[in-house]
Amino acid sequence: MADFREELLERFLRYVKIYTTSEDDVENIPSTARQFDLAHILENELQSLGLQQVNVSENCYVTAVLPASEGMENHKVLGLIAHMDTAPDYSGENVNPIIHENYDGKDITLGDSGKVISVKDFPELEKLAGRTLITADGTTLLGADDKAGVAEIMTTASYFMKHPEIKHGEIHICFTPDEEVGRGPDKFDVEGFAADYAYTVDGDSEDEVAYENFNAASATIEIDGVNVHPGEAKDIMVNAALIATEIAQSLPASETPANTEDREGFYHLIEMSGDVAHAKLAYILRDHDKDSFANRKVVVENICKKMAASYPTANITCNIRDSYENMLVIMEKHPEIIKLAKDAIQSVGLAPISRPIRGGTDGAQLSFKGLPCPNLGTGGYGFHGPYEHVSLEGMETVVEELIYIGTHPIQ
Length: 411
Ligand SMILES: [Zn+2]
Known about the structure:
Bound molecules: zinc ion
Distance between the termini: 25 Å
Strand order of the largest sheet: 1-2-8-3-9-15-10
């Protein structure tokens, strides 16, 4: 089948060189205008491939429709989604991809940067021996997250256009901005996209389909103390900074990101500041389990209430806001979407794996907006930094999976 290998590689190498880093704490979507550079390239390519209704929205969402083959019009509409931005955590400018042909499965020195992708840190490297591996040169991230996903979806669309004899259902494509800054779904027009189900192509190994993520909330605790001269403070002073440390100490020490894995939730102190008069604690709360998640919010509230009772002259406020939910509750209602992904992975000779995501995905938010959307792998690893790497064979496998999914649409 693999007559798309060269095209896939060419697309990937070209897309990663386009600077599309997004930015945190920007009101606008897209957060950076440079994301339009890739959006317009994809727009042109989708048009020349012959897709329909190709559009770039004012918020930089690229959409296109691949009509169903004759006789396949009555199936549900499949959506395929990938994001165009790269993480602001590390430079994404002047990416210089390096191709390691017939990779030997050992540590990789990245250009002259002195940085090394080690087998110790990335144990999957051994399994990638013999493949064509692609890395950056150590001065930037690679951007396989998620330009591998973009290249895979583009190559799938191109494959279907070049092979009209291969029957597929209707496919709607969307390339989104600002996934890395958590804004991807914000301006996603779920109704306009008009797909019945979708997959984000934004995970790592090609044998994975993920449909479980954290429930997430943030908690901001503000403390106003009572500040007087320390020499005359007896029975009067209430030190806000000390109350803040007492609150931090009241949460279970073992339930932090550094002490948890798999489906274990946590309280994560992301920021702490304060003096005698005023102190602030900012937490994020995470849990896959709905009840346990609800309980975490109660625990934080109760600690604040207890502190408020102990220090009646202080003012303690606790503001908890939900961020996103575990898509599992949605996916449980649509087992056929997970089954199709697993069938696709099996069709290329792999055993599907599903790990709970210790974070969120755009698909989780889209699922709650009415578009059930698990996450497929891209073949890439080590995202968001200089150690990112992807194998061409992994990417090819993902395209084969997408072709399988496109040709086996849900009824
Ligand atoms: Zn991503």
